[in-house]
Every structure is written in C-alpha cells, then in structure tokens.
Write a structure and sequence with these properties.
elongated, 13 helices, 366 residues, Transposase Inhibitor Protein From Tn5, Chain A, domain 1, 3-stranded antiparallel beta sheet, alpha+beta, 12 strands
C-alpha cells in the first residue's frame, strides 16, 4: 500500500466547519429573501439599527447550523470565518432577538413569505393538495394554557403535499380544540397559495369532520378525504351493512345539518379475540369495535376506488404529520422561547421559514 506523504502544520487562516451554509446563503441571496422580508417589515415596528431581515436571516442560518434555541445564535458569531464569508459584521444578541419578537409578534405578516417559498418549489405544478393538522407543543410559560395533553400550545399547521412545505400556521393556545375554526383556516391556506395555483385536494383527520367544511369543499369542487367520527346514525348504518365482499365498502351518508350528501369508505379490520368489544363508543370516536371487527370510515367526494382512496388518505401521515415532526425536531419549533403569545407566534413562523427554505434547497439539488 502506497503511503501518501503529508505534513501537519498550524495556520492562522480563518477556517470554518460550516462551509455548507454558504450554499444556503447563496440561495437566500439568489431568491432575494432579504428584500422580501424588509418589504414585509415596513409595517412592523422597529427603532433598531438592525433590519428585520438580519434578525430573521440570522436565525434561519443558525437553525440550519443546528441551533436549538435563541442562545445558539452564538453559533454564527463565534465562527469568524463564517461571518466573514457571509459578509456579517454582527448578528442580534439572544436578548435583543427576544425583545424584537415581542415587539413584532404578528405572525400573519409572514404568510406571504411562506407563499413565495412554496411557489419557488412548485415549478410547473399548478394543482396542490392541502393537509391540515394540529400539533401539541409543551410549554411551561406562565401564559401558556392547559389543554387535554398538558400545558402548552396547539398550533394548526397547513402543509402542501407536493412540496412538503408549510403554507400557513394558526398559532393557538393549548386549550383550543383541534376542531375549532378549521373551515376558516382552510380558506386562509387557499388564499395564501401562490397566484394561479389551484387547491385541488384536502385531507384532514377527524377534527375536520364538520358539515360546513364538507359542504364548502363540495361546493368548491375540491376533492377531500376526511376521517369520519362515529356518530349514532353512522354506527347504525355501518352495523346494518350485510353486503361485505372485502374489507372496504362505499356508502352514501349525510350529516343532520349538511346541504349535501357524500360518500363514506368504510374499512373493517379483523381484531384479536381478546380485543373483542361490543359496539359502544362516544360521538367523537373515530372507530367502532363490534364482534370480530373494528370499523373506521373516510368521508369523501373522490372518484378514486376504495383502495386508492384509503392509500391517498393514509399518505397524509408522511405528507403532513412527519413534516410537522421535521419542523419541530429539526428546526426547533418544539419549544417556545417567550412568555408573550404573539412573540411565540412569530417565532414558530420563522422556524417554518427556515424549514421551507430547506425544502427549496433540496429542490435545487434534485
């Protein structure tokens, strides 16, 4: 084996272990995100010498470098070589960043930035599928409220399946049920789509099983798949079925206050003898166990066959739930830094911007 000769020596040249961030910085410059943030920032309050874009972009870079909280902004300032490559002379201190969040806590102002980043990733795609889901964020902040899981927050997050990006966030207190204002949130997500992009599909868990949502989607001719709740009328309808040929069957159903009827794909699954139960469940249950089988249902207006419809609905587990996990675990949205509610709303949107930019970066390489 040939040994390659080499020598070790010290150097006074600046060296960084984070050279990969230069690719990200080039992308941020190419898409002119700094200008767009400052355009949004014109209506934000600021008496600081540091521009709004410097706050946002500094933390986005820090998040991509592995930051876990505001104090990790030092990742940038402690790396002199990186600061020189980025052209930064300084970055906001954690305490200043916290004050900036509190002063400018109006998260809706970032919606157009989410829309812009989604548009960059869509390319020639003109139709998109929206998944919405609530997620719990544990917090011991004194202003956080208790929900059914514990003290914290329960934001509703809308994701676009085709790009794995976040289109909107409705930051909510922990005591807000996941089913609240879903109709308004869906419309807000649709409104925030890039120009000329059509909302063609919506997938929601049982929190979205509401007649006003289903009626609106039918009126708008938007394909949907929504996990049904086992209301009394539906339970009776399921238990009356005697024409099973496989473990899926489609029936027509209507809610008491709905304008339209819709189809339900009923799934049944054989359960172990030790798990057999009588068909008793409350109005919020998503499944019904009776005898040898457990039953679940998906409300839809889709022309897909039963197998494809179930597969399409189940895909939301990756397109939505796993993407939210990425946001929380990889981009530090699993804990809120401030006592102020609106400051935390702005913070989670900045984390979402960092996540969306990462998806744009992936699209550039693929």
């Amino acid at each position: 084996m040939e040994i390659i000769p080499y020598q070790l020596s010290t150097t006074k040249e600046l060296i960084t272990p984070r050279s990969g961030l230069i690719c990200l910085a080039e992308l941020l410059d190419k898409i002119d995100l700094q200008t767009k943030i400052d355009e949004v920032g014109r209506v934000l309050k600021s008496n600081n010498a540091i521009k709004h874009s410097k706050y946002v972009l500094s933390y986005i870079l820090a998040l991509h470098a592995g930051a876990d909280n505001l104090s990790d902004l030092s990742i940038l300032t402690s790396d002199k070589a990186l600061m020189k490559l980025l052209g930064y002379t300084r970055t906001p201190k954690p305490s200043a960043f916290g004050k900036w969040l509190k002063k400018n806590g109006k998260s809706l102002l970032l919606d157009e930035l989410h829309s812009y980043l989604v548009g960059l990733s869509l390319g020639n795609c003109k139709k998109v599928t929206l998944d919405i889901d609530a997620t719990y964020i544990l917090s011991f902040n004194e202003n956080a409220l208790y929900g059914y899981i514990g003290k914290g927050y329960m934001p509703m997050i809308g994701t676009i399946a085709e790009t794995s990006q976040i289109i909107a966030i409705d930051f909510r207190q922990g005591d807000v049920p996941p089913s609240k204002n879903n109709h308004e949130f869906i419309k807000a997500c649709m409104y925030n789509l890039p120009k000329d992009i059509e909302l063609s599909g919506v997938r929601i868990d049982a929190a979205g099983y509401q007649h006003e949502i289903i009626d609106w989607l039918i009126d708008k001719k938007i394909e949907f798949a929504i996990r049904a709740k086992m209301h009394n009328s539906l339970r009776e309808q399921i238990l009356d079925i005697d024409t099973w040929q496989d473990n899926k069957i489609k029936i027509v159903h209507a809610m008491g206050d709905s304008k339209h009827s819709f189809e339900l794909v009923i799934q049944r699954e054989l359960i172990d003898k030790g798990q057999m139960e009588i068909g008793i469940c409350d109005e919020s249950s998503q499944s019904l166990s009776c005898g040898r089988y457990m039953y679940r249902a998906i409300a839809t207006n889709s022309n897909k066959n039963n197998d494809d419809l179930v597969k399409w609905y189940n895909q939301r587990a990756d397109d939505s739930e796993n993407r939210i996990k990425d946001l929380k675990l990889d981009f530090s949205a699993n804990k809120m830094p401030c006592k102020d509610f609106k400051a935390n709303a702005l913070y989670i949107n900045i984390c979402a911007l960092a996540y969306n930019i990462f998806q744009v970066l992936k699209a550039c390489f693929t």
